[in-house]
Amino acid sequence: MATGLISRGSLGTASALLLAFLVLAGVHSPVIFPRSIGAQEAQRRSAVDGRPVVFWRPGCQRCIRLRIRLGRNARQLRWVNTWRDPAGAAAVRAANDGNETVPTIVIAGRPHTSPDPEWVRAQLPATA
Predict the structure, then answer these.
(1) pTM of whole model > 0.90?
(2) Burial 60-93 (b: 16+ CB within 10 A, else e)
(3) Most buried in the list 1, 2, 74, 105, measured by CB within 10 Å?
């Protein structure tokens, strides 16, 4: 598609199109979000090491904002994709009066819906 636009002399449009696809690829890449695990596994591991569990879904702007603002600290959290894990979606509904509002972060057994990334960073275990 971009090649066709370039051949017609629309270099700017082709560049914008390529940039848009690059951004979409990046947003859905494991580079942006660490590998997701199942809700039960995340909660089991969290009980051992105290790491927060983040329930998220692809395309969620608040989830992307959280991930980007956490930077390298995002790897200290357990990420559960609610679209791939029915138990994760059920946990989010239980925490949010039946709504699948993400990001929902469980820290020390307590759910927090769409918390500020700086607050989340302050809750991370010092040893993680």
Answers:
(1) no
(2) beebbebbeebeeebebbbbbbbeebeebbebbe
(3) 105
